[in-house]
User: Fold PH domain-containing protein from Paenibacillus rhizolycopersici.
Amino acid sequence: MRFKTKRDPLFTVLWTALILVANLVILWPLLLDPQALTSGGLVGLIVPDVLVTALLGWLAIGISYEIKEDVLLVKGGMLRSKIRFEEITRITYHPNIWLGYRLISSRDAIEIHYRTGVLGSVVISPADQKRFIEELIRRNHSIQIVDSP
Assistant:
């Protein structure tokens, strides 16, 4: 069962600004010296620009959460986490969305705490939080819910 991420206008603006700033920084030499378009200068600037833009776009657009038979698979671009249901200890509403391991695109997020994680938790923002949490609890009845709405 696959859950899409909730999209927040704030995160859309932040990601768009980040991509624009990255493009500006990479393409700045073209603005200073249009002569750089000749010879290999164009390729040396355009290729890294396209790669950075594609990577940032993939990180922003490729966020999803998938509940499989025995694991929760959290994906965001090239980042992947497999969390076994029995390792999940609790779910916290209203986490700090600016710190830690997070694959979100909304301020309305939950934090999943689990025993095997390097940081101990991941912050995610499924579009249908209620159904998502119900599915996790159905697979592990010992999950605690903290600070529920």
Remarks:
- Residues 9-32 form the longest helix (24 residues).
- The chain has three helices and nine strands.
